[in-house]
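cron nightly-structures :: item 1 of 1
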Amino acid sequence: MALTDLGRNVRRYMKLQQLSIPKLAEKSGLGTATLSNILNEKASPNSSTLIKISTALGVSFPELLAETPKLKTLRFRTNTKLTAREIAERDQLEIDSAIWLKNYVSLEELTGKESNYKLNKVVAKDPNEAAKEVRKIFSIKEDAPVYDIVSLIENAGIKLYLHDFNFQKTFGLSVNEEDGGPAIIVNNSENISVERKIFTIAHELGHLILHKTSFDGKFAEENDAEEKEADTFAAEFLMPEKAFIKQWEAHSGISWVDAVLQIKQYFGVSYKTVLYRLNFIVGDRFKSGYLYKEFARLYRIKYNHDLKNNYEPKSISEIVPALDEPEKLSPFSFNVERFERLVRLAYEQQKITISRAAEILNLSTMQMRERVAEWL
């Protein structure tokens, strides 16, 4: 057992639960001096002490003693100062991502299904040109929407992780090749729309291509220039300027709000992405944020909704066809399956046990047996 890992784990769980040393001492029945020595890696506790701490924190014994892996090429940026609890949530996110990525690489090696990164030869530094280059590599027609970004990303050798993490101040992060990537981790919280998740994937893809030197494993404030470039890349990749203008002109006979909604459905993007593209095309004609405020105002008047709480009008996820109307099924797909396919393949090849498969997929043994039954 490494004292460093134990101290970090105890400190992280304390922050997540907002427990001070005196509070933890009260819950565990241990002295504050004992806890301080453990947190500062000055004492090696016996098993009874560890049991008291794990019980007080409400975590398992293995979780308390687990190695805390680090990612050397993690790119994590935020534009706000974090509280102690948010720092703990961020650290937990890094640990979860590192474990997932380590398992992913191991599964590829066990099954002989290693993936090769196909976009490392994209050299354009301009975000619009880079996006056009990537679309050509993916063989997407100039005016066609991106119908299945997940398959495109995974087929390009990029590992994709949809993870519902508690850290709400970021939509996604990415990891470079040195740590077994490239990989993109997306906040899969249910209150975030599918369209926002799609844009996050495209945004992080922009960072992987345009900002290779910023993958340094450090937590830093957002670089406004880099964030704008990644946004521009994502907008051009998902909704090319020429195709956007063509669609905008095709909907010129309807209200501005409905034109935005029609175009967002055509390209499978959020209404904010449509407004971002529109704002980019009209240049400096409007003050910063004007189009977003005006759209919200007009939408509230017409549809009696304030668009708050990440609400996405006319969302992809709302398109549920009737059994006798299959043509109304959304053409956009958003299913991440490769990781579980690798788990299934490794299990069927008897490279991993059912308990190991359960551990990788974060399931109980009973749940894993049910999953295996579903596979069969």
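cron nightly-structures :: done
The chain has 17 helices and five strands.
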